[in-house]
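User: Some background: our group keeps a shared notebook of sequences we're curious about, and every so often someone picks one and asks for a predicted structure to add to the entry. Today it's my turn. The entry only has the sequence so far, pasted here. Could you supply the structure so I can complete it?
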Amino acid sequence: MQNLRLVFAGTPAAAVPALERLAASDHELVGVVTRPPAPLGRKRVLTPSPVAQAAERLGLPVIEAARLDAAPTAAIEALRPDLGVIVAYGGFVREPLLSAPAHGWVNLHFSLLPAWRGAAPVQHALIAGDARTGASVFRLVPELDAGDVFAMRPRAIDGSETSGELLDDLAVSGAELLTEVVDAIAAGTAIATAQSGEPSFAPKLTIDDARLDWRRPAAEVLARYRGVTPEPGAWTTLDEQRLKVLELATITDAADAATLPPGMIAMRGRRVLIGTGSAPLELRRVQPSGRTAMAAADWWRGAAREEAVAR
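Assistant: Of course. Here's the predicted structure to add to the notebook entry:
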């Protein structure tokens, strides 16, 4: 097998396992491309991306670029990569950069293509109530996530996972799949096949997408909560103030499952319940506006109410 000169492009924490796996392989990582530092936290402190931090820890050269225009393209071309690898970089690779590496670019995507092409595949899969998802490694082409697929690894979706938990798992298994594909390309044995089936699309979610509609059936409300947790973060309003819903769960005790009107919040025993279009759900952890996260029962006892309606 010929060892390849790789350039890696990625930004969030979900891309770090792939970077680490490739750095530990026999291939040579000649450069890491990531987006510039972003303001984080209440104080909006400029913070390097998780990939930038990992690259520094691994002693790898970093190219920070908000978009892959002329300057970063020239810097990448100067590295003479044999193969480009991209995992959730957050920008498009276009010509002439797309054709710069001898073997082009491969992309690790967290869905079973052509399902959920786009920026938020895991989130949309959960919101839609899909029973399974997975990871795909495909050849990058100008059209969004439409290239021929080298390999896919399916995975069942657990009924309680949030998008953050599911993405953490897929990032690790996907890193293994990606490395296998890179090895196959190096060995000359990789085969890519055209995507088959009707594509679905997964655009980036907005904060409005994360608002919970209590008029919907419980299963749909819970699916949206799981899909938008931890980002952009599920929320509702109470007394015209935003209430973040940090943990929401189904009710298994029939004694507490008496119907509540949609959005109605009430304490039953030691649990805080909220009505939906079908069965109530349990609020377990919340964050009121301007306050820290807390157990829903503590928040509700502090509010000294018997009932209220969230909207």
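Suggested note for the entry: The chain is about 25% helix and 25% strand. Residues 136 and 152 are 4 Å apart (CA to CA).
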